[in-house]
Each structure stands twice: as C-alpha cells, then as structure tokens.
Specification:
This protein has about 280 residues and is an alpha+beta fold. The protein is built from two helices and eleven strands, in the order αβαββββββββββ. The relative contact order is 0.12. InterPro entries: Porin_10 (IPR025631).
C-alpha cells in the first residue's frame, strides 16, 4: 500500500501545476513577440527599398537606380512573356522561329553569326537587370495558358555587404504541338540559367557588372502541312477549309529538330578618374 502513495501524491502535484504550465506556454509566444519593436506593424523593406540598375545606367553614371515595377499589366499578351517585346512574326506557336516586323540596326561589336530567329526567347546579356537591395529580393512569375503554353521564371538576389550584390535566375517555358500531334505532346522546351553580380567602391568611382548567361532551346521543325489528295481540287488548287484539322494533318518533316545553345560571359567595368562636374 505504501508503494502506491508516492505516485498518487506526485500525480496530485502535477494536476495542480499543469494549468499554470499550460497558461505559461500559451502566453510565452505573445510575450516574445511583444519584445520585438516594429517587426509586425511596419514594413521596413519592400518595393521602395529595392532598386534596379541596368548596364546602360552605369555607363551613363546614373547610379541611383529605378523603382521595381510591381504592376501586372500586359501579362495576358504573349508579346510580354519574353525578353524582346517588339512586334514580331512567328510560325504561330510559342518557341518557333521569329523575326521582327520593323527593321532595326544591329549595334553589336565584332563578328556576328547571322542566327537570330530565336533571339526573341533568349536573354540579352547587355540588358540584364541588376539589383540594389537592402534585403533579399525574389522575383517569381508563372503563366499557364489554356492550350498548354507555360512560362516559369524565378530570380533571387541579395546584397553581400554594402558594395556587392549577387543573384541567380532560372527560366523555363514550353508549349505543345499543334500539327500532327498526339495527345499532350510537348513541342517547345526552353531553359535558361543566369548568374549575375554587381560591385561598386564606397566612393562610387569604380563599378563592375558581371554575368554568366546560358540558354538551351529545343523545338522540332515540321516544315508545314503536307498536302494530301483530299486537300486539293481537280484543278490542283488547295481545297478551302481542308487544312484546319491541325492534329490530323500530315507534316513535311517528322524527325528534324532545331537546337539553339547559347553560353555568354560578360564583364563591364567603369572607372571615373575625376570627380563629377
């Protein structure tokens, strides 16, 4: 009998202490948050404390940067899904060969390869955004269309000290086949990985911009619709309305593939010898 009295007595003690312990555990998070000032009531870092700088800004000695764009305008237009927003003519699907409708002079230095039908989908290393952030900055967007077109982009940037900012970005977009396609068959596959960094001295006399830009673009080349016997009239002319069964049509090329690989390393440095006028 005496062996059972000790456990029963200890249980009675726990019953008396347990409500106080539970009350303390419930109040502890509130007491801990109350000691942190201006953490949950004020937004210290945000869109107004994050600045965007471009290579052209550094070359013009405009170091103050620009406010980031937080609007959602033009997201429904596929012209703004990619990095070249000029008016262009393509083959009717995301990722296909494209060319500009208006002529534009090429300002590039050095020899050019002449391959530019996929420039619309690739990042231009000279126009990559660099950031001046007081806190880590993340950019994310995801677009999904009803016909299988998909755009995904994720970018992360942060400052390492007062004078150095580094970032990493990943992008992918894809689309499905329209001509001679089985159900949910992929068509375009594009991926891009970007590393970028910006450095400046405390007196802002020296600036350096550096990025490594790599892109992989894969898309089949179908060569257009192949005319069948039922698609032409007796005169040899195309039969109106017979070429709009896209998934049921035959194509001229079945095994051709476009592959566009790009690897770029870019370093831009500026040094101001004299003070500003």
């Amino acid at each position: 009998m005496s062996d059972l009295l000790v456990p029963l007595a200890s249980f009675r003690f726990l019953y008396r202490v347990l409500p106080a312990l539970l009350l303390g555990l419930l109040l502890w998070p509130a007491l801990g948050r109350a000691q942190v000032l201006d953490d949950s009531t004020k937004v210290i870092y945000g869109a107004k404390t994050t600045r965007v700088l471009y290579e052209a800004d550094i070359l013009r000695e405009q170091y103050e940067g620009r406010l980031i764009d937080t609007t959602l305008t033009n997201q429904m237009r596929d012209r703004y899904w990619f990095h070249d927003t000029t008016f262009q003519q393509d083959l009717g699907n995301v990722g296909t060969a494209s060319r500009r409708l208006l002529w534009e002079a090429d300002n590039g230095i050095g020899a050019r390869y002449g391959r530019n039908v996929f420039d619309k989908y690739a990042r231009n290393s000279a126009t990559i955004p660099y950031y001046d952030t007081r806190s880590p900055f993340t950019f994310f967007r995801f677009i999904q269309s009803a016909v299988g077109e998909q755009v995904f982009e994720l970018s992360y940037s942060r400052s390492l000290g007062k004078n150095l900012n580094v970032g990493l970005a990943y992008e992918r977009f894809a689309s499905r086949k329209v001509l001679a396609a089985s159900r949910r068959e992929n068509f375009t596959e594009h991926s891009n990985v970007l590393f970028f960094a910006r450095y400046q001295t405390t007196d802002e006399r020296y600036h350096a911009l550096f990025n490594i830009n790599t892109a992989r673009h894969r898309i089949p080349e179908q060569g257009g619709i192949r005319y069948g016997a039922s698609d032409t009239l007796a005169t040899g002319e195309p039969r109106p309305g017979s070429l709009f069964g896209y998934e049921l049509e035959d194509v001229n090329l079945s095994w051709a593939l476009n592959a566009d690989d790009r690897d770029e390393v870019r370093l831009v440095q500026t040094l101001r010898l004299l003070g500003r006028a």
